[in-house]
Design a protein that fits this description.
Strand content: under 5%
Strand order of the largest sheet: 2-3-4-1-5
Largest sheet: 5 strands, parallel
Distance between the termini: 60 Å
Radius of gyration: 31 Å
Low-confidence stretches: 53-58, 172-185
Mean pLDDT: 86
Helix content: 55-70%
Number of strands: 10
């Protein structure tokens, strides 16, 4: 597969799924060994990820040294060696709250090690441009940039200057920015773009291949999953290898399993279920290390390990077996073997008991902080208690290991060991010792959070701070609430709304418990909570939090405080429920009041101006006054252009809203112009965001062009929809949710093109296009049967169009079913734009089927324009 990826520049993801200990990591290690053996001399990469000397021993530390090892801890590169390929293996894990740990700083740290060689490679090809330095400055953390500037003397000044420019532009809100945790731009796409710039700048056939290893991929955070999706969409020679457990894939809502389930039909993703080794394989392994052992005893030992090679190796190193092993013979009887417990948890518990008390104390202290933790925080906690051994001894035990030397991040080697340590906390440390350790850790967290470090280490700190607050050791609950709010803000940008709600609820509760009810922080948290609840659940769920925020703002805030206006806008969004007329009417009153209060402010902030104008435009659209909504959206766009810049997400969103409202009022040319701008600006952002982020803009422009009937527009629409389809298909497969959108737009383009062919007498070409469209819509309807009513209604409408094109009376039933979903489940009346569009297509279907009377009845029922 590596050679195929290298030759075709078509990226690929292979997922190895098997229970712990079945050999997933060993497959990766052997692949690396085979790859390393093909290097020219002098060799850039070491011959193996784990030295043979370490593998030959059965000792527990040696066993653990290779366990989950998919990257080099220390890499010494010969001075004259040329890099043949790039091996990247970021560490994935879990934070103290069980959420995925951020890994992109660890990944960029690995890239930094190879940047001297990558930059020299570009320099030799005369492709090292100023834009390369600027992208490095925007993506890499400052410590990595400073280290690189010292390492590569020739480019050090350029990097420092680019970083200084980046800082100035960031303060001014201009230019490419590093995507920090919680920022609005997807950092995974930006890291992909850095790789693209370093690897793909030449456009030559000898582009440098990349191997990206994602061990325990079920732990990946959304940014890392975005990196994978962007990589599969592009044309870099990138081979991604992921390992995971079967039980973590089935029905999981975690980012990577959810992505994998949605991309199950991607031709660039392959899932391999690893089988267990045979009994003969395991018996041979026992006899290879202990050749004088009775084969029957070897067979029984393999059976006690339940076919798990890792468990078998741990069993052979268990104290009881070591005691009876002499001269290559395990001197046990069958009944002795039957009494052995070969389960992984039991074996790890036996090895835990062999650790010194001092090492166990360090490990349980680390477990208090989470599966991933910072060394300086742990050391600060341990400083409060007397431990006979330190962190170095704990690392030497191979139960924990460093993952990022820049940030000082460590992790437990595997989750099983973390659980063993966690389960032994009470037996190893007294309640007083635990309190002291957590208190010391808390002091370190306070000091480090004050630094405002934008790296992934901050996310670890914030989560640890919240974990310590939940453990009851944080007395300053206002600080804890600030950390919880910052985490929630980042989770909102990653669409992890359920987790964001949980953290916002903690923040609200802590502010109330600490006597800060009605403070700006408290109101801010309530408003954020309402917004997330509204999107995650429904508008009604967000009403209580917004209503409370408004009452508190009016009671505690100054008359000119912008929070009072913002609270009215948020509550109006929650009350914009057309099925409840009285509640809906109150939303309009709130928006009018917010606008009046805004006009009375002497110098309102740009964000508030945008918020109120956007709320007014959305309300006008809900009222069916699309002309007024469009005028207001143009005001929003102008404000965003002026206050936030042409490439800001607010501006791009406002531009898309202008296009949508233009379509509603029939200003098709204006809608096309706006969506061309969206596509052009998103393409301009590729330097930060990656190609995948333009797919939606292409699909939306294609849909808009379909409102025209000329060959040129329809051909362009077909091309754009196909481009979006190809991008989404690579990342999500033919049946992926985004890909379905492109399939529906493609089918509509084929129908429109077929109708044109039909009017020109080319019946055969028209029929072929209609048939292609019908195949697509039939498939998408089947895929959307179990999804929400709105997505199914749109699919049924498009399917009805395809059936009508073929003059199949079954089309009417599809339109009626779609309208029924709009009416009964979505509670939309005939003035709603999507309902009217569906009615227009139903009217056309009746006309095409020769049912003039039915067509006239539909026109009257839905008040469609005559003629």
């Amino acid at each position: 597969m590596f050679d195929q990826v290298r030759a075709t520049s078509r990226p690929h993801l292979t997922v190895f799924s098997a229970p712990p200990g079945w050999g997933k990591t060993r497959v990766v290690q052997e692949f690396y060994r085979a790859l390393a053996a093909r290097q020219p001399d002098p060799r850039y990469w070491p011959p193996a990820l784990v030295p043979r000397a370490d593998e030959s021993a059965n000792g527990f530390v040696a066993l653990t040294a290779e366990r989950k090892t998919v990257r080099h801890r220390q890499l010494e590169i010969p001075a004259e060696a040329q890099i043949p390929w790039l091996w990247l293996a970021p560490a994935s894990g879990r934070l103290g709250d069980g959420s995925p740990a951020p890994i992109l700083d660890n990944l960029t740290n690995q890239i930094t090690r190879h940047l001297p060689h990558l930059l020299n490679r570009l320099e030799r090809r005369k492709l090292l441009a100023r834009s390369t330095y600027r992208l490095i400055a925007a993506v890499l953390p400052l410590p990595d940039i400073l280290e690189l500037a010292e390492t590569v003397a020739d480019v050090g000044d350029e990097l420092i200057q680019a970083h200084a420019e980046w800082r100035r532009e960031r303060r001014a809100g201009q230019g490419p920015r590093r995507v920090d945790y919680g920022d609005e731009i997807d950092r995974g796409a930006q890291v992909y773009q850095l790789l693209r710039t370093l690897i793909d700048s030449s456009g030559e056939e000898d582009r440098l291949p990349i191997v990206l290893v994602l061990d325990d991929a079920h732990n990946l955070d959304p940014a890392a999953v975005s990196l994978v999706a962007n990589a599969l969409t592009g044309d870099l020679p990138l081979m991604a290898i992921a390992t995971t457990w079967p039980e973590r894939l089935a029905g999981s809502d975690e980012p990577f399993p959810r992505y994998l389930a949605g991309a199950s039909t991607s031709l660039q993703i392959r899932t391999v279920q690893l089988g267990r080794l045979t009994d003969d394989d395991l018996i041979s392994y026992v006899l290879a290390g202990h050749p004088s052992t009775d084969p029957q005893i070897a067979a029984r030992l393999a059976e006690r390990a339940d076919g798990n090679p890792y468990a078998l190796r741990l069993l052979l190193d268990a104290p009881r077996l070591r005691a009876v092993t002499r001269g290559g013979r395990i001197a046990l009887h069958a009944q002795d073997v039957a009494q052995l417990d070969g389960g992984l948890n039991s074996l790890l518990a036996q090895h835990w008991a062999e650790l010194s008390l001092g090492v166990r104390q360090v490990l349980v202290a680390a477990a208090l902080l989470g599966e991933s933790f910072l060394d300086h925080v742990l050391v600060a906690g341990l400083g409060r208690v007397r431990s006979s051994e330190g962190l170095d001894a704990a690392i030497a035990s191979s139960w924990i290991r460093p993952t990022d030397s820049t940030t000082g991040t460590l992790e437990f080697v595997e989750r099983l060991r973390f659980r063993v340590a966690k389960d032994n906390v009470e037996d190893t440390l007294s309640p007083e010792e635990r309190t002291k350790i957590l208190g010391g850790a808390l002091s370190a967290v306070h000091a480090l959070l004050a630094d405002d470090d934008p790296s992934d280490a901050r996310r670890v700190l914030l989560t640890l701070h919240v974990t310590l607050a939940l453990a009851g050791v944080e007395n300053d609950l206002q600080k804890a609430a600030a950390s919880a709010y910052e985490i929630a803000d980042g989770m909102r940008s990653q669409h992890r709304r359920a987790d964001a709600i949980r953290y916002l609820q903690h923040a609200v509760s802590w502010l109330e418990d600490s006597g800060h009810t009605g403070s700006r922080e408290h109101i801010r948290c309530l408003l954020a909570l309402s917004a997330v609840e509204r999107i995650e659940y429904d508008r009604a769920r967000g009403e209580a939090s917004a209503e409370r925020a408004l009452k508190l703002a009016d009671t505690h805030s100054a008359p000119d405080d912008e929070q009072r206006i913002s609270a009215r806008c948020v509550l109006a969004w929650a009350r914009r429920r057309r099925a409840e007329p009285t509640v809906y009417a109150s939303s309009g009153a709130l928006i009018d009041e917010a606008n009046r209060m805004l006009e009375e402010l002497p110098a309102p902030s740009p964000g508030l101006i945008r918020e109120v104008a956007a709320a007014r435009a959305a309300l006008a659209a809900s009222d069916g006054d699309h002309e007024r909504a469009l005028a207001l959206q143009r005001v929003v766009l102008a404000r965003c252009e002026n206050d936030f810049g042409r490439l800001h997400r607010y501006t791009l969103g406002a531009l898309e809203d202008v296009a949508f409202q233009s379509l509603r009022v029939g200003a098709v040319d204006d809608a096309i112009a706006a969506r061309r701008q969206v596509l052009a600006r998103r393409t301009e952002l590729i330097g930060r965001m990656g190609q995948l982020q333009t797919a939606s803009a292409r699909n939306n422009l294609a849909f808009t062009l379909l409102q025209l009937d000329d060959d040129r527009s329809l051909a362009e629409a077909d091309q754009l929809a196909n481009e979006a389809y190809e991008m989404w298909c690579r990342a999500y497969g033919t049946d992926g949710i985004p890909t379905q959108r492109a399939r529906l737009v493609r089918s509509r383009a084929w129908i429109r093109q077929g109708l044109l062919r039909e009017t020109r007498g080319d019946e055969a070409a028209a029929e072929e296009l209609f048939s292609r469209a019908l195949v697509e819509t039939t498939a998408v309807v089947a895929l959307r049967r179990d999804r929400g009513p709105e997505s199914l209604a749109i699919a049924l409408q498009r399917h009805g169009m395809a059936l009508a094109a073929k003059r199949d009376p079954a089309a009417i039933g599809q339109f009626e079913a779609a309208l029924d979903l709009h009416s009964r489940q979505l509670r939309r009346d005939r003035s709603f734009w999507l309902v009217r569009q569906c009615a227009v297509d139903l009217h056309r279907a009746h006309v095409r089927l020769g049912r003039r009377a039915e067509a006239q009845a539909v026109a009257r029922l839905y008040r469609l324009p005559q003629g």
